[in-house]
Amino acid sequence: MILKTAFILLLGTATSAWATTILVFDPAPVAVSVGDTFALNVDLLDIDGLSPASPVAGFSFDVAFPTFLQVVSAPVEEGFFLATGCCFFPGTIDNVNGVISGISDVSIFGAETGFDTLVQIEFTAIATGTGQIAFQNPGLTDPDANSISIDAANPADVVSSPVVSSPTPEPAAWSMAGLGIAIAIARNRRRFT
Length: 193
What we know:
193 residues, alpha+beta, Immunoglobulin-like, six-stranded mixed beta sheet, rod-shaped
């Protein structure tokens, strides 16, 4: 029994060292056609097995995106920070260079301790292309304003394809079809007369 308890304590200590804080875009990857609008959530994942999640009281990051995309409107705050944040800044959008700079917020009423969506960003595909939407300069802080280590800031792969439309027959094609029908009718009349 003592050996079993020691093993469980050792396992709990080992797994708490595996704490992982990740920023991700959801959904990812993204496949759209030119002209499509889509929303990406920026999610905070704190995955660490048995120990409690690290409390997050503030965030900041920039987003780089390919220039075949355009940001439709300012990013929108979501989740815990929407309810408790005091100083949300949606960032400065530069659609020419493909950057949103300075997205940030701080909570004055506690800290986020689980999985949550921080921000939602809406994009429109204006041309074809393949690229990534990526985090730049990500930062998280705890309630004491200490920096929290970010183990991964995963990008989102994006593919924008041309709009697929069914071909419309040309006027010449309609003329040829009409001529073919007229010939078929004339031949059928000759057979019956």
